[in-house]
Design a protein that fits this description.
By secondary structure, this protein is mostly helical. Helix content is 76%, strand content 0%. The longest helix has 15 residues.
């Protein structure tokens, strides 16, 4: 493999694909700063963000996801990554603000409802957190995470009947049955 890599270095010196492979090799060897420098030089914000995410450097991951979103505005993974980073950094108000336009779209993505609910809950708005999860459960009825989190929030807000209903739904989903609408 090393011989093949060296042959490629000679034939395709400084090609983007070869540099990306080199960055991946550095990454797999645990040389994260060197890999990050290669990704930056390539403007490969997706791999750069993933590198920082893997290492738990959420501030740099957020910066990289935002750079990726600026370069590719329709890339939903960049927005989802930025949302996750904001939640990990406990920047709940900012996350909630950034998620609002996404939630207003028809068929908003599952992750947006779940992240918005988490932000609302951390901000002490349990009603908003429940609302976001109810939308998620309605739009994506087989999403067990939404139903499970609803169970927890219904218990926290002293709504045992609704919690019991969600327990039944999760049980049905685990058995492979379609959840009731």
């Amino acid at each position: 493999a090393m011989q093949a890599f060296q042959d490629c270095e000679k034939r395709f010196a400084n090609s983007a694909a070869l540099r990306k492979l080199y960055a991946s090799m550095l990454r797999s060897q645990g040389k994260f700063e060197a890999a990050a420098e290669e990704y930056r030089a390539l403007h490969d914000f997706a791999d750069l963000a993933d590198l920082f995410r893997e290492n738990g450097d959420w501030e740099k991951a957020l910066e990289s996801y935002r750079a990726l979103a600026a370069e590719h505005p329709k890339d939903e993974s960049a927005v989802a990554g930025a949302s996750e980073a904001l939640l990990r950094l406990s920047r709940f108000e900012e996350a909630e603000r950034e998620l609002q336009p996404i939630l207003k779209r028809p068929h908003a993505p599952e992750w947006a409802f779940l992240d918005a609910s988490k932000a609302e809950q951390q901000l002490g708005n349990l009603t908003g957190a429940i609302r976001d999860l109810q939308f998620a459960a309605r739009e994506y009825p087989s999403n067990q995470v939404a139903h499970y989190r609803l169970i927890q929030l219904y218990k926290m807000t002293n709504q045992p009947e609704l919690a019991a209903r969600e327990v039944r739904i999760v049980g049905e989903l685990k058995r492979g049955a379609k959840p009731p609408r």
